[in-house]
Amino acid sequence: MKCMTADWTSLPADLINRIADSVLATDDLDYYMDFRAVCSAWRASTTDPKANPCHPRFHPRRWVALDEVRMHQSDDARLFVNLATGRFVRKDMPMLRSYFLVAGAAGGLLVLADRRAPHAARVLNPFTGGLIRFAAPVPLETAVTAHVVSSSPPTLVLLCYESRTIYWGDPHDESFHFRKENHNSHPWVWMALVGGIYAADRVYDI
């Protein structure tokens, strides 16, 4: 008697996409990548995040790097936690050897600088491997906090505490726009950026 087994590779494309969408809804991007890796049929039925790394659908929203303090060390692994579910994930990212790590951004993205001059900015999605390439070089600053605005095109915002300067730009800008704050700036303007919400005041917009 033959044992009947289910042929999971023959699932209808709409059902495959519904399952994939449910995984993305919980921000489990690593599960989405594992799901696509099951077979060629499932990959063909779902969107490849690397094909359009700027698409906000595949940007992490609820993750944070717990060991960001280790970002300037040679270890390629980083520990992330999903703030909504409490799930921990350690990601091995050998590609970090090709870049300088600048900062972690809200949601779990990593801001990098190309090791080759002029050290152009990059934004890495650690869960999909997608890389957003910026033309502008990373400013020579220390103590940087970063945020990526999921607009079209995406905007990278760098907040530099020591110089009290805000830099921002999209992938096509040859250099970052910047605004230097005086020491009497209201703290809430800076904290809004650190929290990954927005940065604005009554005088100018970012």
From TrEMBL:
Record's keyword terms, sorted: Membrane, Transmembrane, Transmembrane helix
Transmembrane segments: 96-113
Protein name: F-box domain-containing protein
Organism: Eragrostis curvula
